[in-house]
């Protein structure tokens, strides 16, 4: 083991591996401690195209393509309320599959090899039993070695990537998610013994029913092995009569869509089970420690961004650490940014998953009023399903988002195409905008007028803020910015700085206009109509608020 590591990563799943790879590439001394001597199977075998792109960045492309995994060309949904299944298709990329279905034991082993190749010190058979509070600027862990010895290891920072067991073995408070996501997952592997594999089985199959939801993932190129899982209520899994295997076999047998796929196959090995209820830690990072992957939060086994989020969040934790190892004085801003990014992803995917299961349980389907979704419309149907919006409203909100994105592209931003990654970006934007609208409604109850008292919104302030790395960057960037109470950051332009300088504790709108013209005479916002439109925009983003002077203060609902 390397001497005096700068970071200890506890856990060798995708999140911990991604963090270790990025740290090693940043020339930092990092030790990764994995409890198992050999990788084990987990849920999360179906990679999305965005997850596959994240895997490519870890340097595991050649090994993955040579592992015999099944290419994934799409996802087929057979959901309550639909007359027939519909498919979201993924196009080939440079004659290569856009994603894969991968048995997790083999997949995780490939990633561990990639971490070693990147320069991380990967230690197998080291079980981290406890992560201790930092003392005098040093964090530490208690670990059991492969030989059964209890060892205390120290480093300036520790990353907890032990999965859902991590928070249960540490001091981090963990809160369960909404009751509608209180699930258990049962799954097993089915091996083909006779007959030919089904046609076109390079797509995953997701099945939604009021009583349970199921997945079917072919795991090898010949479709001779498949993962079949069932997501059920956690209360149903507590039924002692017959146990998990009885529940599992009954659910699989009740699903006619699975019968032709499983014809000629046998269940290989035991039925596996795990808790699959949503939940998140109250704090994602602190002085001396970070949580990544399932140790930070878990949402759902059916949607497929788990590996993607694990790698993205592990890489983000590494960017934060690479920053902090050079400029510890900025730790408050860095830790706050990390917590906000992770928490917003958790809240987004909780809402997506809730919509997914609500549609299954209510037999509403993703496209109300239509008996069948045309195959070419699969992506739109999927967005309707997980956004919870009917087609007409979804089209309007999506059109608004794409107009904004295209406007950015015209000013030099990246070109926009509505694929899987952009679709999830749209959903994040959609849900966050809804929250901003709710925040404005709660804080502002009057129309903007000359006799309004204008002031900074609660929680809005100018400071030196951390921002996510630029494309290709390894560390966070810092710049003067205005931040709202939801954690959004906006560059502190001269106009914004001038406005916040004159707002003070609150002044009448007419006075603010006059003072602003004095401080920023050359801005286009100097005329009354343009200035008022700008103020409305800032209010939409929780940066300013107002109340009528006679109200005496900003009205709070």
Tell me the CATH topology of the largest domain. Answer: FAD/NAD(P)-binding domain
Number of helices: 16
Find the count of extended strands (DSSP E, 2+ residues).
27
| Biggest sheet character | 7 strands, mixed
Radius of gyration: 26 Å
Q: Which segments are poorly predicted (pLDDT under 50) over 5 or more consecutive residues?
A: 364-376, 551-557
| CATH classification class of the largest domain | Alpha Beta
Tell me the count of domains. Answer: 3
Global outline: globular
- Which secondary-structure class do the elements indicate? alpha+beta
Ends apart, CA distance between termini: 57 Å
Explain this structure.
There is one protein chain. The strands form seven sheets. The chain has a seven-stranded mixed sheet with strand order 5-4-14-15-16-13-17. The protein folds into three domains: 7-67 and 102-175 and 279-350, FAD/NAD(P)-binding domain, CATH 3.50.50.60; 364-440, no CATH class; 444-551, Outer Surface Protein A, domain 3, CATH 3.90.930. The chain is globular and about 80 Å long. It has 557 residues and is α+β, with helices and mostly antiparallel strands. Helix content is 36%, strand content 25%.
